[in-house]
């Protein structure tokens, strides 16, 4: 059965929109009936397609000749495509109008003089205007003088001199390819004639004249010689970097050099100015995150620049400590010193300390494979407990690994090592070691070696006394 319903149209944000006031977009229609759950349907509203052709373009001028080609200028719908076709319907030139509707289209000389043209404008929807007719001009009855291409250049003998001479052609070609003798006049920017051979640094106009032809011109640029013996300030390489105290702060300070080298290797005092991307000077210590230019200046030198990049502190700083390093071997003795070998995080700093006092006994950097070798200073006694840690580039330090220097070995009945009851002088005694198997083993070993030493000393004392009595 047909059910009477009410309907509500809502936009993508859920706001109700009155039917009849809908703009292009996607909507939801919700149908409601008493005793039934609501149902919805999608409604798509679109703008009508553009089917209106642009107005026919205007043609302001058609200039040129069959030798040098033609130029067509005019106006049409802004940002439309201009198409120019010949009498056969072949496209001979295209262009695009600017935001104001102006266009300039060049045509090849093969289009020929007095050739009919049709100019149309096509908008972005592909709608094509009615054509506007135009005609290429007739070729001149007489050939024209062809101006030289490019600029002439010459150099003075020294900075500030007015003695430059330009090499000027004695002939030019005309539009028929004929060689034509010419004369020339050089004028400066004010239109004053300047003799060739008396030219100072600057830009001039050379005017070529030939009987029966219109004059043509060429630009002449005169420069002073570069002086390779004059030293220049050498710009620093790479970018400067610094960091703000926190995100959004404008308090970064960059360390800037007080001197630079010049190209002769001389140290030159410099001043510096920091500017932002808009060229505004920013005081050092008031820098926020961004890219800046540091300009170095020194008397008698051209300025040089360097890029400065200021960043906010990273929000994902490494706070994970390395794993505790391993101690794979401890070799040597108290007389020659101990060598510790092991592994830690590659690139981390390995530090050996007295765990009781915190005194640093040695440091090393773990290699790319994590291995390290560290020589302890002389005076550390056998059976001494020390600790080793690894610190990564972010300053995170691992848990310590404890180890004990090996006990002194016997050699020919005598004891090597320091037999002081304070084992280790300025370092530390094993009397303070925690009750670990390794520490106990070292302590028992030391007790044994002390007793053996006493027995040995007694034996040699008694033997010596007997020999003295005999």
Automatic annotation (TrEMBL):
Residues 53-137, 321-406 form the Bacterial Ig domain. Signal peptide: none annotated. The chain crosses the membrane at residues 441-461. Residues 1-48, 144-226, 232-314 form the Phage tail tube protein C-terminal domain. Residues 60-85, 120-136, 312-339 have a biased composition (Polar residues). Residues 48-58, 89-102 have a biased composition (Low complexity). Residues 48-102, 120-163, 312-347, 391-410 are annotated as: Disordered. Keywords: Membrane, Transmembrane, Transmembrane helix. It holds the Pfam family Phage_tube_C. This is LPXTG cell wall anchor domain-containing protein. It comes from Lactococcus cremoris subsp. cremoris IBB477.
């Amino acid at each position: 059965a047909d059910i009477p319903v009410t309907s509500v149209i809502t936009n993508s944000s859920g706001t109700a929109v009155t039917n009849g006031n809908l703009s292009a977009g996607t909507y939801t229609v919700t149908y409601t009936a008493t005793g039934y759950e609501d149902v919805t349907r999608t409604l798509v509203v679109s703008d009508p397609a553009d089917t209106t052709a642009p107005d026919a373009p205007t043609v302001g001028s058609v200039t040129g000749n069959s030798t040098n080609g033609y130029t067509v200028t005019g106006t049409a719908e802004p940002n439309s495509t201009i198409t120019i076709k010949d009498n056969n319907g072949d496209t001979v030139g295209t262009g695009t109008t600017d935001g104001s509707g102006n266009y300039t289209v060049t045509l090849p000389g093969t289009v020929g003089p007095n050739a009919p043209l049709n100019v149309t404008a096509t908008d972005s929807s592909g709608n094509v205007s009615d054509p506007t007719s135009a005609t290429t001009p007739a070729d001149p009855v007489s050939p024209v003088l062809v101006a030289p291409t490019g600029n002439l250049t010459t150099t003075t003998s020294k900075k500030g001199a007015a003695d430059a001479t330009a090499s000027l052609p004695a002939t030019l070609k005309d539009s028929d390819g004929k060689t034509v003798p010419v004369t020339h006049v050089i004028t400066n920017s004010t239109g004053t004639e300047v003799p060739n051979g008396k030219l100072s640094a600057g830009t001039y106009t050379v005017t070529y004249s030939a009987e029966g032809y219109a004059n043509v011109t060429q630009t002449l640029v005169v420069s002073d010689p570069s002086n390779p013996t004059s030293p220049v300030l050498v710009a620093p390489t790479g970018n400067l970097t610094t960091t703000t105290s926190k995100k959004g702060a404008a308090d970064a300070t960059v360390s800037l050099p007080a001197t630079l080298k010049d190209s002769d290797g001389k140290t030159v005092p410099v001043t510096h100015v920091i500017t932002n991307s808009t060229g505004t000077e920013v005081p050092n210590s008031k820098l926020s995150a961004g890219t800046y230019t540091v300009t170095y200046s020194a008397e008698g030198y051209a300025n040089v620049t360097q890029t400065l990049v200021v960043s906010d502190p990273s929000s994902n700083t490494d706070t994970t400590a390395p794993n505790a390093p391993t101690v794979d071997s401890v070799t040597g003795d108290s007389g020659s010193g101990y060598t510790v070998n092991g592994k830690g995080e590659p690139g981390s700093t390995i530090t050996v300390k007295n765990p009781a006092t915190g005194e640093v006994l040695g440091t090393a950097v773990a290699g790319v494979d994590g291995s390290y070798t560290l020589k302890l200073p002389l005076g550390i006694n056998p059976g001494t407990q020390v600790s080793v840690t690894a610190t990564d580039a972010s300053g995170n330090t691992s848990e310590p690994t404890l180890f004990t220097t090996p006990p002194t070995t016997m050699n020919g009945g005598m004891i090597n090592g320091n037999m002081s009851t304070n084992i280790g002088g300025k370092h530390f005694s094993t009397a303070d070691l925690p009750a670990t198997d390794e520490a106990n083993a070292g302590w028992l070993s030391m007790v044994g070696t002390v007793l053996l030493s006493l027995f040995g000393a007694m034996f040699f004392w008694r033997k010596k006394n007997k020999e003295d009595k005999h």
